[in-house]
Specification:
heterodimer, A: alpha+beta, four-stranded antiparallel sheet, three-stranded antiparallel sheet, 4 helices, elongated, B: alpha+beta, Rubrerythrin, domain 2, 3 domains, two-stranded antiparallel ribbon, two-stranded antiparallel sheet, 7 strands
Chain lengths: 187, 190
């Protein structure tokens, strides 16, 4: 029997859908993004079940990527813990205790380096005319940029190409009040 | 809210057209967040709501579900006449709500499938994880074998992964059952 070609191609990035407050949050599902023939597929995997959300190329109006400070904060906290472990290890007299603290500190340092290597974090949303959905896999700027690099040609192919200026002009033509200056930033 | 507006994902303030450079980081004028927005031509599309046309002549073909509305198309599933309101287009096929519902239940429309249980991975987990406690595999292996047999034809992940997990789960389960049988025979004939 002829093997059917893989319909979906995985896009860079992986993330978890997190629920809860800033202090207490629970990871609900592992998410990944896939590029289909005419749509973008968001897969949420909880245990041994997957749920799917499709965003058709013709319906995608905008993608917003907002840079966050999570990576910086995490790196600072983990780096500090690594430093504390190393300083503590220098002040411990017995060998097993010193080795244990070196291993713990090394672990923190490794995670910090890994976090720094992955680059700045972000929150990505995809907008259609009826929804604004978060894309958890694109939680790093690098992954989001790489993913957009693969998604953009598909969207242009489905919707046609418009230069940003042309698009802005048409948007202002449709909603004339947008031609006014934006309000000043709140302090 | 107007669907043509793009808002900041943090403060929900409108991102003005002057702030929408493609592929560049900019600041939200309201909250100061660093954002990058890419806008596509679909933002200019407006929603056109198709309303069914009323019957003009009494003998004219009418919709099966709305007898007072004019038929616009035939359902490709059951052949019923449908008005513009009842016509649902899926993968280029025009179907009625009833055919759509039954098709969704029977997984006929892959594009409408919004969840799947990964029986292949579950079988593999049931076959392998009980091995960590050794004796629990007496229960785990037959369950895994049952799952492999029961759901051998069930689709795996929609993203097109192979059914290697099913094969491995089956092999593990058979080996575990064989090992336990041998151990039992050895114990009884000792």
């Amino acid at each position: 029997m002829a093997k059917t070609p893989n319909e979906y191609h995985r896009l860079p990035g992986q993330g978890r859908r997190v629920e809860g407050s800033r202090l207490i949050s629970v990871s609900r599902s592992a998410c990944s993004l896939w590029l289909g023939g005419d749509h973008l597929l968001l897969v949420d995997r909880v245990g041994y079940a997957e749920t799917y959300k499709r965003f058709y190329f013709r319906d995608i109006q905008a993608v917003t990527i907002r840079k966050t400070n999570n990576a910086t904060t995490t790196s600072a906290v983990l780096g500090l813990m690594a430093l504390v472990s190393f300083v503590w290890a220098l002040n411990v007299a017995n060998l097993p205790g010193r080795v244990t603290l070196w291993i713990i500190g090394g672990g923190f340092a490794l995670i910090t380096l890994l976090n720094l290597w992955r680059g700045p974090t972000c929150v990505t949303h995809i907008k259609t005319s009826v929804q604004m959905e978060q894309l958890p896999p694109w939680n790093r700027l690098r992954a989001a940029r790489q993913g957009m690099g693969k998604l953009r040609p598909q969207l242009i192919q489905a919707q046609g190409a418009f230069s940003p200026d042309e698009l802005k002009a048409k948007l202002v033509e449709r909603l004339p009040w947008l031609s006014q200056n934006p309000p000043a930033a709140s302090t | 809210m107007e669907s043509s507006l793009v808002t900041c994902s943090k403060c929900q303030a409108i991102l003005w057209p002057s702030q929408l450079p493609t592929g560049e980081l900019t600041s939200c004028v309201s909250c100061g967040s660093v954002v990058m927005v890419e806008v596509f031509p679909a933002i200019l599309h407006s929603h056109v709501v198709m309303l069914p046309e009323p019957l003009l002549v009494e003998n004219e073909s009418n919709c099966f579900y709305h007898p007072t509305k004019k038929a616009a198309i035939v359902c490709e599933g059951c052949g019923r006449f449908l008005c513009a309101l009842c016509d649902l287009e899926v993968n280029g096929r025009h179907v009625c709500p009833a055919c759509l519902e039954s098709g969704q239940k029977k997984s006929k429309f892959k594009d409408l499938e919004n969840s799947r249980v990964l029986w292949d991975r579950l079988s593999f987990a049931v076959a392998v994880f009980p091995l960590l406690f050794l004796w629990t595999s007496i229960i785990g292996a037959p369950i895994a074998l049952f799952l492999v047999w029961r759901y051998r034809k069930a689709p795996c992940s929609i993203t097109g992964k192979s059914n290697l997990s099913f094969i491995l789960a089956g092999i593990f389960a058979v080996l575990e059952i064989g090992a336990w049988t041998l151990a039992l025979l050895f114990y009884l004939t000792r």
